[in-house]
Amino acid sequence: MSKPVIAIDMGGTKIKAGIVQQGIIHSSLSIDADSGNGLRQRLPHLQEAIESLLNQEGLSTAEIAGLGIASPGIVDSIQKKILSIDKKFGDAPGIDLEEWCLKTFNIPFCIENDARSSLWGEWKYGKAKNYDNAAIITLGTGVGSAAIIGGKLLKGKHFTAGILGGHSVINYNGRICNCGNKGCVETEASTWNVETIAKSDINFAESPLTHAPVIDYELVFRLAAEGDQVALRIREQSVKAWSACAINLIHAYDPEILLFTGGIMASSTQIIPFIRQHIEKHAWTPWGTVHIEEGVFPGTAALLGIAHLTEHS
To answer: Where is the signal peptide (predicted)?
Structure first.
């Protein structure tokens, strides 16, 4: 049996870490990402979390095959570096994470984009495992994407292929995005911008959202189900934005299946049926219908995927 792997998923809100072996997460925990203050200041806390997991499992680093990080942003998986990142963990491109891994744990290191890792996890163990052509949209702090074509992860010459679905333009008159572009999917519908979207609604002052300490999609979808008009408008705008993103990916990558995953999919019953109907009506797929499904592992696909990539790197 192969050795277990330390898998890390660098989310914008939480950093998850787990001990993974052959598709099974034996133990895991999460720490606050505090991503606005950079990654370097979180590394000691991440080290403590990993050491806690190892102690919990009764493992030494000699019994670990490697450490893998699923990171947001543009990742060079060959040189094992984060090349560029959108606001979250802004100092990450200047950190030699492989050196940190070797100095701290003395084990091999692997890194890949988080959406690619999520798709790989679903392709190996989840809904996409019977398809050679698949794509994914991750709905969380931002909007991620990735594609597998002919059984291979799409990466491209400069490691950007497939992963910038959240920065495809769906409203050229829209707001400026964190990336500097205008009218990206993320500016129209993502957790990092949903509060701004809500406050721009003409009836915001009359909505229960006004009194919320934090405006997130869990609250938006709950209030929409209760009939709040502002929340209903945000929900409609968001599912339309995600549907437009989905059609862009379908037209670009010709997948047999398109998966949705991420924290926002806690409200999947309000998301998937609309997107499925929208795609069936508007996507140009004369060969048939793309399967639109929720991922099996909405919270752990990236851990499973980066663990597998690390184990086989």
So the answer is: none
